[in-house]
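User: Second chain of the day. Same drill as before.
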Amino acid sequence: GAPPASPVCAIEGTIRYSNGTVGQVLYIKSVYTRDLPPDLVNFHKENPTFPNTSTVDQWFSESQFESYRRLGQEYASSNRVRTWMDRHLPVRPA
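Assistant: Same format as last time:
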């Protein structure tokens, strides 16, 4: 069957500081979501612990490194992250 999937890769929250100021945070987690591209789905099928591979072994293979890089790229360009950034960081470097 299909691997279990998380409904979202990011969640937003509000931070209330002791001095009364309020901030916003976007927490992005490496999770397997339903809308990943085929290359990441296939890598997950071959490596079921992806994207939660233990960091005990820091020597990632080229395909493992590329899969994590690609996952980050997917999340950073997702509608959820882009919408949050447009709302909270409307002016940012190109």
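The beta strands are 10-16, 22-28.

User: Great, on to the next one.
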